[in-house]
Amino acid sequence: MVMNSTHKTLRLTRWHLGLWLGLAALAGGLSLWACLRYNEVAGTDKSPVHIATITVAVLAGPLVGPVANPHHANPFKIPSSVITATLLLLGLQFLALAPFLFVKRAVSWVAFAAAWAGFIVAACAWFGAALISLGFHLG
Question: How far is the C-alpha of 8 from the C-alpha of 19, rounded, in Å?
Fold first, then answer.
């Protein structure tokens, strides 16, 4: 298939995974810093294992909050607001990936850039919500 320079093919690549994991690492680093700062300011002593668990749980998006402070929520009853946020953001993730999963053909640069922008916004929203949830449940 010959493509000219005005079109790019929409397909899922390693760049998607790399960007998502990069944002995950950034959010994980911020959660680690937040937990250490929380220990210092609040005078608590979250264990290194619990802090590591929280750092990895950032991958679960808004569900990280109940992991960070299970006293705020019964572990068997996650707050409905957390479940709602998680489901909405999962839907956004799916919508952002849909062009790459289903179109799989050459599109204009504008459509290509819009698809990537949507993916980046969805990934940032996922990890941003994780950090907000963490901040809410630590506080």
Answer: 19
Residue 110: closest CA among 1, 2, 3, 10? 10
Q: Is the pTM of this model over 0.85?
A: yes
- CA–CA gap between residue 121 and residue 93 (Å, rounded): 9
> Is the distance from CB of 73 to CB of 79 less than 8 angstroms?
yes
d(CA 29, CA 54) in angstroms, rounded, equals 11
109, 9 contact by CB (below 8 A): no
H helices present in the chain, as ranges: 14-42, 48-57, 64-68, 80-98, 109-138
What are the distances in angstroms from CA 54 to CA 20, 25, 85, 137? 18, 13, 18, 11
Q: Mind listing the pLDDT tens digit for each residue in 55-82?
A: 999 999 999 988 888 765 555 678 888 8
Lowest mean pLDDT among 15-24, 59-68, 86-95: 59-68
Which pair of tokens denotes residue 42? 């609040």
Could you give the CA distance from residue 5 to residue 11 in angstroms, rounded to a whole number? 17
